[in-house]
Fold these 2 entries.
Entry 1:
Amino acid sequence: MNVYLIPANSKKGQLIFNIFRLFDLMLLLAGAALTLILMFAISGDKISIFFIKLLPLGIAILLVMPMPYYHNILVFLQEAVLHITSQRQYSWKGWCAADGVNEQKK
């Protein structure tokens, strides 16, 4: 009988740098490119303008940051939106619930 033990981190070998999916890298690069464009396009020397310029890169970094039990925060948000938008009504039946149709009162 052949029984193989699969390590818990076997999926990490399929990721780029063992952390990123292709979409994650594209999102990170798009945030960095948009930040670079904003650095040259928006003039100003206030600290608030500087934070506005860095906002796309900051959001991209937060979205691809690893999160426990999920790949990253982006995957968690996708799963949360999927769960909220496709709510199903589950009827709970415990060990004392009767199977089938309603029982008639005796």
Entry 2:
Amino acid sequence: MPISFDPSNLLEEAKSLLPAAVKLRRRIHAQPELGLHLPLTTAAVEAELRGLDVQIARGPSTSGLVVSLTGTKRGASAGRTILLRGDMDALPMPEDTGLPYASEIEGRMHACGHDSHTAMLVQAVHLLHRHRDELAGTVKFMFQPGEEGFHGARHMIADGLLDADPKPDAAFALHIGPQYKPNTIHGRAGAMMASADWWSMVVKGSGGHASAPHASIDPIPAAFEIGLALQTMVTRRHDAFDPVVVTVTKVTAGTTNNVIPETVELVGTLRTVSPEARRQAQDGIKRVATNIAAAHLCSAEVAIHAGYPVTMNDPGFVAFAREVARELGGGDGFAEMAAPLMGAEDFSYVLQRMPGCMFFLGVMPEEAHAHDHVEPCHSNRMMLNEDCMATGIAMHAAIATRFLAERPLS
């Protein structure tokens, strides 16, 4: 069933909403919040939605919101439902951008663009609210805290917010990408982002005087060998076309120059893009550590801390969303990603429950060029092209209207 407004009209309308999106984004950017409870950010979102004909649901575990907008078109209440998601939390890190609206809170920064995700989603509510008489179903907007390692999506799911009637039939999310050309949409079917586990181990020997290592059991050489052997394990035991990343990020041992310590602690990350590679790598870390430690007469206690699963984009929904992006941005509006990113996302929990996808929105700063070094997400100097948020607003709205009106039931 055709709809009476096309993506180009949506983009023009989104541009009219851009000043409000920029204002909200800068407000949130200046007051970044961490974790599952974001009272200032949530209050800012609610203030922007005041007066709209929407329903707002909350759960006990987080300050996240699910905002529901049901179309007034005939039969809309019995139509399908789509979920659009934007995350809201910041990172525990300094900001060194020099922006006039830089973080006012020391040690916190919106370095991953969640402030822009929130601002785009708020204005997508406004844009779709204008056309609620043409919506053939319900749109749910998931304003989610705790993406940066706090499993916010999982908590909101456990609170029942995603299963509340009407239950979404599909889900979509946009993430900004400073490395991509402005206003381009990037994505792929299948694995989009990696799983993210972290591991810790304690290598234990027997302490003693540094001048007489033979009288002790030094755990430091064993720890060094374990760190190197983990890299060899990745190259020798894993298929290069099913990537695995194992990185040692922290080594802690000793107190002074003439004491051999009893223990060494190692901490690191594990990234994979398939469940099988994830299981094999987890087993491999334990095997390598315990056996190398034993060869040095030491022991190794290894703990694997499960993080986000692989973000899997549904191929059917990707095909649909790809066409929406091309309609919105013309021939250059969509770029196919050759490989997944090894970062991780807790939107993966949502995609385990329903078809959908996450795409990236290019927000390369105006002064940058594709061949230049562009500060990436999680950089203390990351900046983005705010004008690109109009494309993000329009993309959210176009996905929702097309899905509710045109996409056949599967």
